[in-house]
Amino acid sequence: MSRYHPKAIESSLSYERPPPRKSTFLSLSQDLDSSSPQQVHISMVGEDKMRISWITEDSGTPATVKYGTSPGSHPFSANGETTKYRYILYKSGEIHNVVIGPLKPNTVYYYICGPFTSPEFNFKTPPAGFPIKFAVVGDLGQTDWTTSTLDHISKSNYDVMLLPGDLSYADTMQPLWDSFGRLVEPLSSHRPWMVTQGNHEVEKIPILHNQSFTSYNARWLMPFEQSGSTSNLYYSFEVSGLHIIMLGSYTDFGPGSAQYNWLKNDLNKIDRKKTPWLIVIVHAPWYNSNTAHQGEYESYGMKSSMEDLLFNARVDIVFAGHVHAYERFTRVYKDKANNCGPIYITIGDGGNREGLASK
Question: What does the pLDDT read at residue 14?
Fold first, then answer.
């Protein structure tokens, strides 16, 4: 029998966090013209509809999606809305949003956006019931690590993507939003991406741009109205036996706030016979043993305000980003292990330029 020194064993089990990788910028392909759809992504709307979102440079492109269940055949059609926004000197392209459906569960649909010359995309709807597979990743950014993460996700055959904030890391540099949309399109056009905002989506600059979340709200429209929310920053949806709540760490969350009241009402409406699993997504973690992002009001303030609501509703899991690490707690309530509390998971190591939490 071999004998090993205890310190040698300890050394072999240590984990050296890899350093950040270089940032990337994905330009518009030369194969696309001004009316070609770019930055295509899809999101769920209700239990049997999907929102198709894309951007064009040409202002005359119709917000129309044609779709069907066979390649090259698109017998169904739906029209939507087109918007755009300004951010200081930046002018966005035409942002198109079209809701299609009703759709069958666990079915592949083929679709084209806008003119008949559009390339054909396809997506698969989630199954009607269990099993269902989610990909969950926060703080994606645009680096070589992001590319590695997306490649890993693409091989997982997931049904729905959940992203707890910090998408593009544009940080007021609006062309980076366009780059991010192109970077994730191979996945986001293929499966629904359900996202919530993080601190890097705020993008408010005193005097120059006083409105928060301008780019995020314009580009990543989520189904907030369907859940009774009045804000794109928090909402809920149901899929395949799960009720999923996407909360906003960077909008009012205190008792009496619109988000607090909405959450209380949303939790009261849940039918655990229909959706036995209850998942919550936030950006700033309520429980965190890393030195990074300690003492932030978005974490301890939101926890103080809403932890009782989640505990009393018997939430199963709370996912968070913000801290660039992976961490999983046992079931917790009021800073103590509690078999009736949620499991808290931090998954903020998607690949952003700031690198991983190191202590």
Answer: 62
Active-site residue, selected from the candidate residues 41, 96, 243, 293: 293
List the structure tokens of 319: 């996912």
Q: For residue 309, how many other CB atoms are within 10 A of its CB?
A: 17
Is the Cβ–Cβ distance between 125 and 106 less than 8 Å?
A: yes
Q: CB–CB of 134/158 below 8 Å?
A: yes
Q: How many helices (H) and strands (E) does the chain have?
A: 6, 20
pLDDT tens sequence across 7-32: 444 444 667 788 888 888 888 888 88
10-residue mean pLDDT profile of the chain (359 residues): values are 43 69 85 88 96 93 96 96 97 97 98 86 97 97 95 96 97 97 97 97 95 98 97 98 98 97 98 97 96 93 98 98 95 97 96 88
Output b/e per residue, 82-105; b: 16+ Cβ within 10 A. eeebebeeeebbbbbbbbbbebee
Active site residue 322: no
Residues 64 and 79: beta-carbon distance below 8 Å: yes
pTM metric for this prediction: 0.93
Count, residues in the chain: 359
CB 242 within 8 A of CB 232: no
Find the angle CA(337)-CA(342)-CA(346) to the nearest 5 degrees: 95
DSSP per-residue letters across 250-289: TS--STTSHHHHHHHHHHHT--TTT--EEEEE-SS-SS--
SS3 string, 317-359, reads: EEEECCCCCEEEEEEEECCEECCCCCEEEEECCCCCCCCCCCC
CA separation for the pair 326, 345 (Å, rounded): 7
Query: 273: which residues sit within 8 A by CB, 6+ positions away?
Result: none
Q: Are 18 and 148 in contact (CB under 8 A)?
A: no
